[in-house]
Amino acid sequence: MSPRETLVKVERLTRRFGVHTVVDGVDFEVHRGEVLGFLGPNGAGKTTTMRMITGNLAPSAGRVTINGLDILDQPKAAKAEIGYLPEQPPLYRELTVDEYLRFCARLNRIARGRVAQAMASAKARCGLGEVGGRLIGNLSKGYQQRVGIAQAIIHSPAVVVLDEPTVGLDPIQIREIRHLIRDLGGEHSVILSTHILPEVQATCDRVQIINRGRLVMSDSIEALTRRSETANLLLRLARPPQADAIRAHIPDIEQVEVRDDGAFLLHFSDGQAVPETVAQIIVEQGWGLLELSPERRSLEQIFVDITTGDVNSNSDTETVA
Fold first, then answer.
1. Both 161 and 75 in a single domain?
2. What 3-state DSSP class applies to 2?
3. Which of 78, 85, 251, 286 could cross-link 69 (Cys pair, CB 3.0–4.6 Å)?
């Protein structure tokens, strides 16, 4: 199959509660082998969108197609192509891992003769091979999350939806779950809903942001990295002069910001920063150049700018397929 095969297609998805529109005409696609990070502030419509994609809430308008199946016209077949891990995993703590996964296999209508194979595959992928006989309630939070992911993939769905999969985990567990998510992305379409922005950068191929019910950004991580670059330059000097002297000697500087760590952030008017010229002037002045690099905005800064309306509107959304 083509690696660009579309497994999730959302078209003009809308949900109203009375006169209040929570999700307003959202469009996007997710391809096989892609991990999509889905972000949004509280109340933005993210959870409502997830519920409609997974068939837990009917849209007021629009269409959701899962692996070519319309989730309203063919709900059973479409939902069979989805694996879902909610923020609170649906675990039965009094069951062993094997008992629980066997139960999940039967819920997903896996043929009786294939249940053992499906369980073994899910346990292997989630690193549960040695805990099959243990009670879920006695497992660490990290292993419980693994069990939750195992139940989501036991029927080999085309699409895996994960809602805040690393909340409450320690750093080692977070790293292990992120690695597992990347592994899942090689075979499925994965939609990762999270508030942890570094997690998006560590695991996702693409990120999209929903705000006030509308999709305000959809971009690849690669393009987002380019977007994070600004016209400002970060400058570190061995023999730093006063900020006024820097501004006097280097043309087109609008502002020189002195940072707490002693570095300078040079703001240029109209984005006219020319690093080669700046470096030459610094050498001529004998200030001792240690570092000269473009300032990069973090994903958190971009997220805040977009969701507070500072840089983008819905009409300016940049979409990368």
1. yes
2. coil
3. 78
